[in-house]
């Protein structure tokens, strides 16, 4: 299970760490120093680089997570592992929505230089990534608190 856990955690580091950097560091600076045309073009490019890595992370996290879950007894696994499955699936659905809906609109708006529509799409992406970042940090906390409670009981 060690290699599987390593792949799982690497996927989590790439996805959650990338969201943390984008949301907490890049976003406020881009908002304060760039005008909409540069800012929206920057974000379309940043997401174009980051999202393929997120798809790879999602595949790795889901594959390794389900594999470990099966070894822990499937639906008989500890509650924290099943909670992780639920939170992880919610995060993946939110990411898929971001990718296919507002990110698609952002790319089209940047290509057509429609900065108003681009700003609206970026606003939606920002809210959804804020939610996913919170869910990701919560999921990490759930594993450790869950394990601790299991050991303490
Ligand atoms: C999508 C479905 C997912 C499934 C089925 C799943 C399943 C699992 C399982 C079975 C373990 C091993 C638990 C143990 O040995 O006690 C684990 C570990 C872990 N998972 Fe997940 N997971 C999923 C998604 C996620 C997500 C989205 C995150 C974070 C954002 C995450 C973070 C972690 C962490 C931090 C560990 C503990 C690593 C360690 O032992 O240090 N998982 N996961």
Could you describe the 3D structure shown?
With 153 residues, the protein is mainly α. The protein has one domain (2-152). The chain contains 5 helices and no strands. The chain has helices at 2-33, 36-71, 79-100, 102-111, 115-152. It is elongated. The relative contact order is 0.14. It binds protoporphyrin IX containing FE. Protoporphyrin IX containing FE binds at residues 5, 8-9, 12, 16, 61-62, 65-66, 68-69, 72, 81, 84-85, 88-89, 91, 136, 139-140, 143, 147.
Task: Kindly summarize this structure in a few lines.
This protein has 153 residues and is mostly helical. It has helices at residues 2-33, 36-71, 79-100, 102-111, 115-152.
Key structural traits:
transmembrane helix, single chain, mainly alpha, CopD family protein, binds protoporphyrin IX containing FE, transmembrane, membrane, 0% strand, Cu-R_CopD_dom, 153 residues
- What percentage of residues falls in helices of 4 or more residues? over 70%
What percent of residues are in strands? under 5%
Order of helices and strands: HHHHH
Q: What is the overall silhouette?
A: elongated
Tell me which ligands are bound. Answer: protoporphyrin IX containing FE
How many domains make up the coordinates? 1
The major beta sheet can be summarized as: none
What ranges have pLDDT less than 50 throughout 5 or more consecutive residues? none
Radius of gyration in whole Å, from Cα? Answer: 18 Å
- Arithmetic mean pLDDT: 97
* Number of strand elements: 0
How would you classify the helix and strand content by structural class? mainly alpha
Distance from first to last alpha carbon? 24 Å
Count every helix, treating DSSP H or I runs of 4 or more residues as helices: 5
């Amino acid at each position: 299970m060690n290699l599987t856990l390593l792949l799982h955690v690497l996927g989590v580091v790439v996805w959650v760490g990338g969201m943390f950097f984008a949301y907490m560091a890049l976003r406020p600076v881009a908002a304060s120093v760039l005008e909409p045309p540069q800012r929206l073009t920057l974000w379309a490019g940043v997401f174009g680089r980051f999202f393929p890595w997120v798809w790879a992370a999602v595949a790795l996290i889901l594959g390794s997570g389900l594999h470990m879950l099966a070894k822990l007894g499937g639906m008989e696994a500890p509650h924290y592992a099943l909670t992780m499955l639920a939170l992880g699936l919610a995060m993946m659905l939110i990411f898929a929505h971001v990718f296919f809906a507002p990110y698609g609109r952002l790319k089209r708006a940047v290509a057509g230089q429609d900065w108003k529509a681009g700003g609206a799409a970026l606003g939606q992406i920002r809210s959804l990534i804020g939610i996913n970042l919170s869910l990701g940090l919560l999921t990490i906390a759930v594993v450790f608190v869950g394990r601790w409670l299991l050991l303490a009981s």
